[in-house]
């Protein structure tokens, strides 16, 4: 019952946070002097045509009514215009792109597999290599191996992601000809090509983020391995692997899990730079295109969707705390 109460409490908090984010995002983009109806009016755009376009798109209403229609559309959907020309946007409706003639939900659903493939694969790689490198560096503190790992970590933290991506394309793509330099192949179409096209984006992002995780894991492991309960575990005659993994690493992973949830949620919201470098049409490319063309419906809907992913990732992190840290008690 305590766990269920905690979940209910966090779900309510998530909804409130998303409402605040939706209100701020809507206010920023829809109270700007830019007129989306003007962009869809065509040429010549007479005052009569502009008034009809505003009415069709719902921009003739006060801003608070527009915001209420936007929120209601997320739950039950909405309809733009009336009569035979009406456009139905079924729920969850995050808006409608009149420029692309598609609902924002459809656009996100189409692009999300690309971004998810990049984000999840890169996250697994940087988590494995980052945590493993941090643990090895901590256990071999002061050795040449420790210094080598930290040198690579510093390079990863310092290097711009676009530079790492371009160097990877130049070396592995053009010089050696081992890997594709860009593009995306759906997994359902060809799993092998899907994998090979994602290797460079995965390891580019993993090199940068994994360096941060290696430094963080090393610091936490050095602190944890000096605690009294670690010495007690060794005094009991436990194997060193048990001491390191069960007692040391388990406690050192707590801050790592926190950052991992935030990073993964943000990356799922759009790996903008990686998609641009490797010519992949994911959520990041959709956002850049929407900003450049002032497609505010897509910008607002995408922002709210990305915020949901980050908030949901935080919720999962809170649940994982109870698994990896026995000291955590779920309370409402």
Short description:
Helix content is 72%, strand content 3%. It has helices at 2-30, 36-39, 47-57, 63-76, 104-139, 144-158, 161-175, 191-224, 228-235, 240-268, 272-277, 283-292, 296-324, and strands at 78-80, 87-89, 96-97, 102-103. The strands form two sheets. A two-stranded antiparallel sheet has the order 1-2. A two-stranded antiparallel ribbon has the order 3-4.
Tally of separate helices = 13
Query: Secondary-structure element sequence?
Result: HHHHEEEEHHHHHHHHH
The largest sheet, given as strand count, sense and whether it forms a barrel, is: 2 strands, antiparallel
* Adjacency order of strands in the biggest sheet: 1-2
Tell me, what is the CATH class of the largest domain?
Mainly Alpha
Q: What is the CATH fold-level name of the largest domain?
A: MetI-like fold
Mean pLDDT: 83
Query: Segments where pLDDT lies below 50 for 5+ residues?
Result: none
Assign a percent range to the helix content.
over 70%
Briefly note the structural class of the backbone.
Answer: mainly alpha
Radius of gyration: 24 Å
Q: Going by CATH, what is the homologous superfamily of the largest domain? A: MetI-like
């Amino acid at each position: 019952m305590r766990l269920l109460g905690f979940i209910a409490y966090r779900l309510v908090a998530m909804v409130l946070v998303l409402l605040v984010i939706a209100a701020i995002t809507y206010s920023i983009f829809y109270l700007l002097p830019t007129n989306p109806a003007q962009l869809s009016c065509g040429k010549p755009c007479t005052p009569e045509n502009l008034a009809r376009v505003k009415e069709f798109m719902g921009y003739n209403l006060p801003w608070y009514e527009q915001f209420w229609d936007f929120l209601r559309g997320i739950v039950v959907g909405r309809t733009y215009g009336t009569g035979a020309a009406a456009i139905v946007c079924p729920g969850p409706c995050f808006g409608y792109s009149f420029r692309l003639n598609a609902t924002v939900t459809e656009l996100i659903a189409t692009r999300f597999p690309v971004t998810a493939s990049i984000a999840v694969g890169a996250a697994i790689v940087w988590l494995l290599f980052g945590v493993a490198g941090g643990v090895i560096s901590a256990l071999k503190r002061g050795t040449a191996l420790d210094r080598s790992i930290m040198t690579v970590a510093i390079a990863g933290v310092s290097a711009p992601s676009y530079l790492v991506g371009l160097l990877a394309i130049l070396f592995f793509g053009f010089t050696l000809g081992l890997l594709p330099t860009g593009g995306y192949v759906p997994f359902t179409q060809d799993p092998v090509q899907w994998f090979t096209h994602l290797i460079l984006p995965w390891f580019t992002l993993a090199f940068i983020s994994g360096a941060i995780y290696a430094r963080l894991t090393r610091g936490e492991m050095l602190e944890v391995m000096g605690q009294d309960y670690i010495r007690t575990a060794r005094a009991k005659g436990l194997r060193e692997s048990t001491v390191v993994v069960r007692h040391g690493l388990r406690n050192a992973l707590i801050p790592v899990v926190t950052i991992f949830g935030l990073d993964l949620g943000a990356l799922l919201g759009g790996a903008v730079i990686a998609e641009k470098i490797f010519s992949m049409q994911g959520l990041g490319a959709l956002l850049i295109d929407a900003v450049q063309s002032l497609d505010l419906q897509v910008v607002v809907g995408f922002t709210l969707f990305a915020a949901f992913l980050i908030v949901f990732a935080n919720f999962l992190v809170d649940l994982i705390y109870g698994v990896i840290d026995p000291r955590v008690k779920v309370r409402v």
